[in-house]
């Protein structure tokens, strides 16, 4: 019903969409639009005239590109486009100016993370699991404002990294050190040699909140691990 702020148009086998029959006042009432499980190969132009749209889910279609007109959606906070055919060249260069807070593009064809995403000042949650990412840019270190979500899971770079870890087991000293630090066991110079105390003082906590593990600088996992588990 157009009087409602949520418009469900999922599983209708749509390959296009026209909202020309809606009056301007009815368009302004639509805040959420669900277009999942259709046959759309492009974002219908009429969607970009829903100026009060805050939530758009167009997952499970066949989109290859996001048009420049999406910039008209200045109130859009959540954009979900899982399981399409999008890649790093699919988004407009100006996309970094969008006020989107949640961006879910899992199950697409990204081989690189678009720089537009890394420059978005309002983005809090990004999910790129199940793509084709082989590398991550150095700018990933600037994502301190992001929620810790598993946005890299299911990508080649993660599979390769985990495989490499399998053949690099921790030493007995590292295992003992983890036990001491994780259990907060007290120790002093009277208990341990100075080299072991120095080793224990180098311990750090894993930045992934779902990990809660301990690692050492000389064995430090790449920063991408906080985005994996």
Task: Characterize the structure shown.
The protein is of the alpha/beta class and 229 residues long. It has 2 domains: 157 residues, Ribonuclease Inhibitor (Leucine-rich repeat, LRR (right-handed beta-alpha superhelix)), CATH 3.80.10; 59 residues, no CATH class. 17% of the residues lie in helices and 10% in strands. The protein contains 5 helices and 8 strands. Strands 1-2-3-4-5-6 form a 6-stranded parallel β-sheet, with no helix packed on it.
H and E string: EHEEEEHEHHHEE
What is the count of helical runs? 5
Number of domains in the coordinates? 2
- What fraction of residues sit in β-strands? 5-15%
CATH architectural designation of the largest domain: Alpha-Beta Horseshoe
The secondary-structure class comes to: alpha/beta
| Main sheet characteristics | 6 strands, parallel
Mean pLDDT: 80
Number of strands: 8
CATH class of the largest domain equals Alpha Beta
Computed over alpha carbons, the radius of gyration is 23 Å
Strand order of the largest sheet: 1-2-3-4-5-6
CATH homologous superfamily of the largest domain, by name? Answer: Ribonuclease Inhibitor
Q: Can you give the helix content as a percent range?
A: 10-25%
Shape: elongated
Poorly predicted runs: 217-229
CATH topology of the largest domain: Leucine-rich repeat, LRR (right-handed beta-alpha superhelix)
Amino-to-carboxy terminus distance: 40 Å
